[in-house]
Amino acid sequence: MATILVSGGTGFIGKYIVQQLCQLGYRVRVPSRNPQKKRSFCDLSCEFLAGDLSELSFARKCCSGIDAVIHLVGILVEQGQETYKKVHVQITKNMIQASKENGVRRFLHMSSLGTRPQAKSRYHQTKWTAEELVRNSELDWTIFQPSVVFGIGDDFTKRLYKMLLFQNNPLLIFPLIEGGKSKLQPIFVENVAEAFVRALPNPSTFHKIYPLTGPEIFSLKEIMMLILEQAHLAYKIEDIPFYTLMRMGLILLSFFIYPLAALKALSQNWKGELWAIYLFSWLLFLQLLQKNMKKRLLFSLPSNIAFPLVRVAEKLIKNPPLTQDVLLMMLEDNVADSSEAVSTLNLKLVSFKRVLPDILDSLSL
Ligand SMILES: NC(=O)c1ccc[n+]([C@@H]2O[C@H](COP(=O)([O-])OP(=O)(O)OC[C@H]3O[C@@H](n4cnc5c(N)ncnc54)[C@H](OP(=O)(O)O)[C@@H]3O)[C@@H](O)[C@H]2O)c1
């Protein structure tokens, strides 16, 4: 049986692909920068190599004696030295070169839906550059472009759920950027894994690009509502436009501004600014409003206000909940027709609604 290198095999999607390959009897090699991750692959008969694929010598080592590469390495958020350019472009370049030097012809590449020339986000721009490297490589390549991927272990549902659970959100208010109107077509992780595994030996998929999308289209707001319902967080969503909240906040401000101004006058060293007083009273007001209504409060935040807030958060917080690049992607629709992949690879698409209870169960364990 052929030996397959799965770069990114330790990640969320990679683990499902590795599992399916092992079940089919393939020999699988998994590289990782973190030797500790070897433990989670003990049950599977695969070879684990510790190292960093941004070093060409390690990429060469990984590609020696293999028959195909499934290249999944990618990051959604840049952190320190781990930039999009390094992880998406440089590592793809290394993998292509190492494949060629080792005579490996088959190369399956993980891209992302929305990847295109002149994309707004740098995530998509660098994914596009990586795709171009693959397309121009003269290898027997296949490229997959999934929309957001869901399943047990996914980061997408986990983040939304944790946020709605308000463990870290004492205010119980949730901004929906531009009303959470942008559309998504989430695809089940097992379907993504099947697409890779079935395309692997199939020459009709050579030099093809397949968008991978699920059977349902949701807005981000609809997804949040589904999570709330499914998790029995029985709160009615109050969709108050941001500017209405601002007006209500301003009315409330008049109740706070005078005592606080008096306090400022009393304390000479107090450096409170007007905007801080306003923000404080406004947040307090939202909290009171929410408490009175006994419901989670989702409000529409215009993107021209969200961007400066996210910019400040990126400067102040090490792992901010949102980055400008992710925000740019959140504002775009992420839907496509995946009928070609479905028919060629015989995929039976699984619905988000069906798997959501299992994902939430796994999160509350
Ligand atoms: N999840 C989604 O919804 C989604 C949607 C569309 C496209 N994608 C794409 O699918 C791929 C996999 O996504 P995922 O959600 O499974 O990601 P993930 O769970 O974050 O896993 C990322 C993988 O990339 C590897 N990696 C990251 N930086 C690396 C580096 N500098 N050197 C070597 N390996 C590195 C990690 O390996 P180690 O940490 O073990 O070294 C890990 O195996 C990515 O390319 C992503 O852009 C994901």
Automatic annotation (TrEMBL):
Superkingdom, taxonomy of origin: Bacteria
Domain NAD-dependent epimerase/dehydratase: residue ranges: 4-205
Membrane-spanning parts: 245-266, 272-289
SUPFAM superfamilies: NAD(P)-binding Rossmann-fold domains
InterPro entries: ComplexI_NDUFA9_subunit (IPR051207), Epimerase_deHydtase (IPR001509), NAD(P)-bd_dom_sf (IPR036291)
Keywords of the record: Membrane, Transmembrane, Transmembrane helix
A Pfam family hit: Epimerase
Protein name per Swiss-Prot or TrEMBL: Complex I NDUFA9 subunit family protein
Natural source organism: Candidatus Methylacidiphilum infernorum
